[in-house]
Structures are given as structure tokens and as C-alpha cells.
Amino acid sequence: MAMTLRLPEDLDAKLTERARREGRSKQELAIEAIRSAQERAELKVDDVLAELMDSDAEILDYLK
Q1: Which of 12, 22, 50, 53 could crosslink 7 through cysteines, CB 3.0-4.6 Å?
Q2: Residue 54 has pLDDT above 90, yes or no
Q3: What phi and psi values does residue 5 have, to the nearest 5 degrees?
Q4: Dist CA 5 CA 27 (whole Å)
């Protein structure tokens, strides 16, 4: 799916420079960053759920 992303000039310059250094496209780097952010967010949710399962194990066993 196509998407237009408008970046502040300073961020675009940094992204352009990194893409040049790494020999990759800005699109590639942006997709990688979005995927990484999504994975970190999912890990946080999983960590919270695991913590709740541990802390509320007694209640959850009772409800079974």
C-alpha cells in the first residue's frame, strides 16, 4: 500500500545521509524502523500480560 510521509527537514537529512552511508533506500530504512517500533510495542504488551498472569495467578486459578 502506498503512503506519503512528510518528514521535518532535519530528520529527512539524517535519513538521507544514513541511506547513503548504508547503500539502502530511505523507504527501506523507514520500513525497518516502523517494524522495529511495532515489535518493541508488542513485547511491552506481552511483558505486561505475563506480569499480570504471574501476579494474578491465584485469582485466575480460582476463576477456572
Answers
A1: 12
A2: no
A3: -120, 115
A4: 10
In angstroms, the CA 23 to CA 43 distance is: 30
Q: What is the DSSP string of 3-43?
A: ------HHHHHHHHHHHHHHT--HHHHHHHHHHHHHHHHHH
Distance CA 2, CA 54 (A): 42
For residues 64 and 38, the model is more confident at: 38
Q: What does the pLDDT look like over 11-45, one tens digit per residue?
A: 999 999 999 999 999 999 999 999 999 988 877 87
List the grid coordinates of 30: 523507514
- Spatial neighbors of 18 by CB under 8 A, at least 6 apart, are 29
